[in-house]
Amino acid sequence: MPDKLIENSQEPNMTTTKYLSILVALLLFLGCGPSAPPTLNNVGGYVLTFAVADNGEELTAAEIESHAVARLQEYCGVAGATATLRDDQLIVVLPGVDEQTLQLCQKNMLIPAQLSFQVVADPLIDPLFYNAPAEPDQRQVKTPAGRTAIWTPKYRADDEFAPTTTREIGGETCYLLLQTPSDLQGTDFLSFEKTFDADIGGLALEFHTTPNGEKRMKGITAANMGRDLAIVFGNRIVMMPTIRGSIGERGVISGRFSEEEIDELVTLGELSKHGQLPQLRLLSQEKIDPK
Questions:
Q1: Which residues, including other chains, have CB under 8 Å from residue 194's CB and lie 6 or more apart?
Q2: What is the pTM of this model?
Q3: Any idea which architecture 115-272 has in CATH?
């Protein structure tokens, strides 16, 4: 005799099932169920066309589209926003937005929002990078083994960092930063907030990393004790501290920042959480009425 898998089983009550089906249908009719995202057909909106002016980071089409959608939906608050890359043009659809939100989207789509934490090359430890052939105005260098580093300028011309070998490119003093898969990127961070650093008596930027970002931060700092770490916003070095210990899920970026500079860094940080974009240029804007 086979084992019993279910005891005291009962046939489903057909009357109850019928009433439940009617209740679900009624709730959906009244708008209590999950609503579909807005579209241009039902709420109207805008279509923006951007040209990809510079894709120096060599982002893929899928990365550009997903980063743009994340920025528009999560940072700008546009539900149903889409982005499609065609022939070096990014087509952005913004359903149901008002003029103020439109301006916010336009402004923030034009900011690539590059962010990275990178180890500074040392002439004694990394001589191959300094000896690699490069044109006088070329920022990226590559060793025969294929490893790369990039000459990067300072956020402010009068910033003073630890002495190391520099190069003048385009009238700017640049430092050579290693480029590795372990470099922290904007997507490794949870938040950026303006704060006050009592030790220096000035404004500072506090950051918190994601769990994966914390793991990467601990890895890069533990493996490079005593070396300089460049904190880069918008392809410019904001700070270059020497690594004295392992850093985890929280840190503070201090400096002689003005209120305007801190606000700019907070914006760059928050945008970078959704992924970097190439440099875009607005080509056209079209208003679409609902049908």
A1: 203, 204, 205, 206, 262, 263, 266
A2: 0.79
A3: 2-Layer Sandwich (3.30)
